[in-house]
Amino acid sequence: MEACWHKEPAHRPPFEHVLAQLEWMAEDHSGQEDWEGAVIFPAGEERLSMANELTVSEAVRQGYCISYSDLELGYKIGEGNYGTVFEGMYLSQKVAVKQLFVDGFSDRVLEEFHKEVQLMKRMDHENLVALLGVVEKVPKLLLITELMEKGSLWDWYHEEMRPRTLSAPRHLERALHLALDVAKGCRHLHEKHIIHRDLKSQNVWIHENGTAKVGDFGMSRVNNHNTMTMVGSPLWCAPEILRSERYDFTADVYSYSIILFEIFHWMEPYARMSVMQIMVAVTEHDERPEIDFEIPEEVCALICDSWHPDASQRPSFASLVERLECIIAMFRQELSTKQKRLSGREEAKQKRLSDTSKGKKNTQIPPLTPDSSGKQ
Question: Which structural domains are found in the chain, ordered by start?
């Protein structure tokens, strides 16, 4: 109701959103998806079908500003360059709430920020964290996104033990799928002419089903000095950005190469170096993390191509997706061949054991029987 009578016409929700929200509340209160079955309609009036109506998240992307009264903040789950992240509840749905302090932001900065937010709302892809809406409650600005309960990729590999062997099929399969998920999300951003600018493992979020999703795209130009500028994290920053040179979409590809290193090595690169040492090594000596010999050759080539010092030589995300899909297909084929070979060896082993057992039975000395005289 508060949203419908908002003093700003632009903040009033469209009827599609109102209908979707009513449907959601009806399901929640009735405890069943087929809530219409419990509704008594006037005689002679057709029952309305809601099958073609928008979902709440889809309606929110059309520009609806979420009401603060519908939002409940929970406990703190993270903190980053742009604010503090809390778990929250929005109309009985778990969400992540990023809190930004905007007190002191100029009108121009806020206007640019809102442009970024509108852009983020339109990004609907399975490998991008969905932005559900925004709550403006001065001096705070709240960004509401879907909740990724497994946390970030950075948290995941720091909390889970590193595999004993990096060439283990189970680890490689997981790493390849994570790499493909991130590449698909970035490909979609680039197709929409969006440069992430701060792509890193802390901004790669893991869904409960294991899918990786890229988040915080569009937020990288909001820094701690309350200005819109080009920023990033030194560990993942392309050398051209560290040197304050002009950059383009390939800067994201460089950042992705470091994420690839993290995914396949399940560890942090440059672990024993300071930020300043990393910056000098990358910009002045073209140094990169050392790739382990256990990493497949095709993956090594992918990483090296992506962190090429010459930005123009780095592949596009469209190309990276194609190459990863080929690597995954090859990996599955090799795994299937190995399993068949092992199965064949096991069958041959069982056959040999069976034949040996039969042979022993055939060569056993028959028991003595009494002769005609009764002697043995």
Answer: 9-40+52-146 (3.30.200.20), 153-331 (1.10.510.10)
- Which residues, in sequence order, are CB contacts of 13 under 8 Å at separation 6+? 3, 4, 21, 59, 64
Cβ count near 180 (within 10 Å): 19
Distance CA 184, CA 191 (A): 10
Q: Could you give the dihedral angle defined by the CA atoms of residues 246, 247, 248 and 252, in that order, rounded to the nearest 10 degrees?
A: -170
Indicate whether 16 pLDDT > 90.
no
Residue 103 among the catalytic residues: no
Task: Please check whether residue 177 is in contact with residue 328, taking contact to mean a CB–CB distance below 8 angstroms.
Answer: yes
What is the rounded distance in angstroms from the CA atom of residue 20 to the CA atom of residue 24?
6
When mean pLDDT is compared across 38-42, 269-273, 276-280, 289-293, the lowest value belongs to: 38-42
Strands 140-146 and 71-80, how do they pair? Answer: unpaired
- Rounded Cα distance between 197 and 211, Å, is 22
**Residues whose CB falls within 8 Å of the CB of residue 160, separated by 6 or more in sequence, listed in order:** 266
Q: How many residues does the chain have?
A: 376
Selected catalytic residue, list 181, 198, 216, 252: 198
Residue 309: band (very low, low, confident or very high) from pLDDT cuts 50, 70, 90 = very high
Mean pLDDT of 133-161: 86
Q: Is the dihedral of CA 259, 265, 266, 271 positive or negative?
A: negative
| Cis amide leading into 139 (omega within 30) | yes
Partner residues linked to 131 by β-bridges? 145
Q: Which residue type does 155 have?
A: D
User: In the beta sheet, which residues pair with residue 93?
Assistant: 90
- Output b/e per residue, 317-348; b: 16+ Cβ within 10 A: bebbbebbeebbeebeeeeeeeeeeeeeeeee
Chain mean position to CA 74: 23
Contacts 24+ apart (CB under 8 A), 74-82: 77/151, 78/151, 78/152, 80/202, 80/216, 81/198, 81/223, 81/224, 81/231, 81/233, 82/216, 82/219, 82/222, 82/223
